[in-house]
Amino acid sequence: MTKSPFLVGITGGIGSGKSLVCKAFSHLGVPIYEADTRARKLMEENLELVKSIKNSFGEECYLSDGKLNREFLANKVFNDESALQQLNELVHPKVGADFKQWTALHSDAEYVIKEAALIIESGAYKSMDKLLVIKASKKIRIERVLLRDPFRSKSEIEAIVDKQLSDTEFGQYADYSINNNEEQLLLPRIIKLHDTFLQLASQ
Questions:
Q1: Whole-model pTM?
Q2: Where in the chain is the domain with CATH 3.40.50.300?
Q3: Quick one: which of 7, 5, 18, 6 has its CA closest to 170?
Q4: What's the fold here for domain 1-31+108-203?
Q5: DSSP states along 54-86
Q6: pLDDT, tens digit only, all 203 positions of the chain
Q7: Is the dihedral of CA 36, 80, 52, 156 positive or negative?
């Protein structure tokens, strides 16, 4: 029987620094599953999912080259809770199945990381052994996203932040957290967590 690696989830609000933290873990040799990137890939390559999205939200969800029309779909669901829930109900099971397959390919790893913005909202955190939440102040997060995504306005980013879980809500689910307000060096804390996860995985 194939051994399943120890599963660590990483989440946090937009601009908190999830990708940066994952990059550091990756340099330590930890396989990283980026759920949001994989979801976009599945939304373009999984024919069953493509058909479901078109049926639910219209053919305009895809461009003529088959690429996802992200702007159109975002406009459809951003201010419509039921539409967003409907989209998530189509996408999350496919991502869950894809993650299982991916994990099987990394069964020799001591532990793997699943990075997902909606790991709590989707319920996927329940299948993780531990959950690490990355936090940062709202002000810093908005500044980071403005630098990263110059096409977004400040009010647009604030609207996204306001729709996400608060740090207090994230904290209710977190086994571990990193405060990424640039007041402390990040790497020593990541290395310490890496040692913790290796220890937990070996038990």
A1: 0.90
A2: 1-31+108-203
A3: 18
A4: Rossmann fold (3.40.50)
A5: HHHH-GGGB-TTS-B-HHHHHHHHTT-HHHHHH
A6: 456 899 999 999 999 999 999 999 999 999 999 999 999 999 999 999 999 999 999 999 999 999 999 889 988 888 788 999 999 999 999 999 999 999 999 999 999 999 999 999 889 999 999 999 999 999 999 999 999 988 888 998 998 898 899 989 999 999 999 999 988 899 999 999 999 999 999 98
A7: negative
